[in-house]
Amino acid sequence: MPIVSQALALAVFGGLLYFFWDNLSSNLQRLNLTPGFGFLNFQASFSIGESIISYRPTQSYWRALLVGLLNSLRVIGASLVLATVIGLAVGIGRWAQNWLVRQLAFIYVEILRNTPLLLQLFFWYFAIFLSQGNKSSNWGLFQLSQQGIELPFSLVLSPEFSALWLGLAIYTSTFIAEIVRGGIQSVPKGQWEAAHSLGLPSLVTLWLVIIPQAMRAIIPPLGNQYLNLAKNSSLAIAVGYPDLYAVASTTYNQTGRALEVMALIMASYLSLSLIIAAVVNYLNRRMQLVSH
């Protein structure tokens, strides 16, 4: 029976594939289109708001898509770092002995975790950056203005990048905070008691005894949040940041090559997700070896 059911499932899957491919072929013939990636060498003829490599509208579509991919990697990498730092701090705050710190961490998590990410991106972009007008707000080492975030050494981040970066990092940090809290709770209380019996302060006990053991429980779900953050970065188009999806959308609108452009987007995000999963799995194996 298991063999029969598996054969039936395989036949159904094959039938669905044939149906979709036949439908796609018919639509392409009706539009007089032949699948192929030759259009990538054509002139893009559209500008991109910001790029970390040189780009001109006279260059090809593949160059434009490369700019979008690098912009995506830039905001994903920066958001992963900031989300991890904030999530770790808030997660420890959720476990703090101080009542006020614990309640503030609880409010932070519950409000931001249960608010749609798209709404938070709009808040950062329209209410924080664009509403600044000609004024600028001094926040210690950096300034907020309509031009974005100005960091020391004359480094300026655009309002589109800043809104996406802060939105992704803060939203994801709430989930990371809960993962950290759960990881700390998974460590037996005897570990705390043993460390205190040796005279270790609570902060030292947390960093040198509890956190290393909690990482065994933290890293696997942390990887899932990293993957979610990478995929959520495609919401960049909502605030006008030229990430891979935004540039690919413009490419599709100009060329009509929906199949090829969507295939490139899927391949890019799939590759990125597999890389993140591989790194997280490597770190997980390392922590397992250290713990033994």
Total strands: the figure is: 4
Helix content: 55-70%
Poorly predicted ranges: none
The helix/strand class is: mainly alpha
Mean pLDDT: 89
Please report the distance between the alpha carbons of the first and last residues. 43 Å
Provide the spatial order of strands within the biggest beta sheet: 1-2-3-4
Biggest sheet features: 4 strands, antiparallel
- Our Rg estimate from Cα atoms comes to 24 Å
Figure out the total of helices.
Answer: 9
Structure write-up:
With 292 residues, this protein is mostly helical. The chain has helices spanning 2-30, 61-93, 99-113, 117-129, 159-185, 189-197, 202-232, 244-255, 258-291; strands at residues 136-139, 142-145, 148-151, 155-157. Strands 1-2-3-4 form a four-stranded antiparallel beta sheet, with helices on one face. The chain is globular.
Brief digest:
The chain crosses the membrane at residues 6-24, 36-55, 75-96, 153-177, 198-219, 261-283. With 292 residues, this protein is mainly alpha-helical.
Topology:
Elements: H1 2-30, H2 61-93, H3 99-113, H4 117-129, E1 136-139, E2 142-145, E3 148-151, E4 155-157, H5 159-185, H6 189-197, H7 202-232, H8 244-255, H9 258-291
Antiparallel strand pairs: 1-2, 2-3, 3-4
